[in-house]
């Protein structure tokens, strides 16, 4: 698709954004069905994060890649990456992240293993009530 097409979607920034901005952008990309682009945003944060936060950002990026695999029909790879991402997340999640992310990812992986390979909707933060 030509870059000047009205249907063209801009690439996410390659540089790391501040944490809340990265999470906001990643969520908007996930909401648009662009899990791989969300992964790119979170991967930039992972590479730039201080040592104590790298596992968090890596885990979030892996969750997005897991969803990407499911969107593309790769159930085995999707389940594997969802589990890997869940295992990388720290017990206490900062930045208002949903405390149930790891359990959600493992639950989706279990459903995939049981034959439900539909691509889930990933919510990084709990919905506002």
Can you give a write-up of this model?
- By secondary structure, this protein is mostly helical.
- It has a single domain (19-113), classed as TTHA0068-like (Hyaluronidase domain-like, Orthogonal Bundle), CATH 1.10.3450.
- The chain contains 5 helices and no strands.
- The radius of gyration is 14 Å and the shape is globular.
- The termini are far apart.
Radius of gyration using CA atoms only: 14 Å
Q: Count every beta strand, where a strand is a DSSP E run of 2 or more residues.
A: 0
Q: How many structural domains?
A: 1
The pLDDT mean sits at: 90
CATH top level? Mainly Alpha
Helix content: 55-70%
Q: Helix-strand pattern, N to C?
A: HHHHH
Range of strand content? under 5%
Structural shape: globular
Number of helices: 5
Distance between the termini: 39 Å
* CATH-derived topology: Hyaluronidase domain-like
Any low-confidence stretches, pLDDT <50, length ≥5? 1-9
Q: What profile does the largest beta sheet have?
A: none
- Secondary structure class reads mainly alpha
